[in-house]
Amino acid sequence: MPPLGNEDNLAPCSINDLTVQHSFVWGRFKVPKSKASKAPVPMHPLLAGFLLAWRDNTPFGKDSDFVFPSVRLKGKKPLSASIMVQKYLRPAAVKAGVIKEGEKVRFGFHNFRHALATALVKLKVDAKTVQGMLRHEDFGTTMQLYAQSDMESMREAQGKFLEQLLGDRIHLLTERVQ
Question: Of 2, 84, 144, 169, which residue is most buried, by most CB within 10 angstroms?
Answer without folding.
Answer: 2
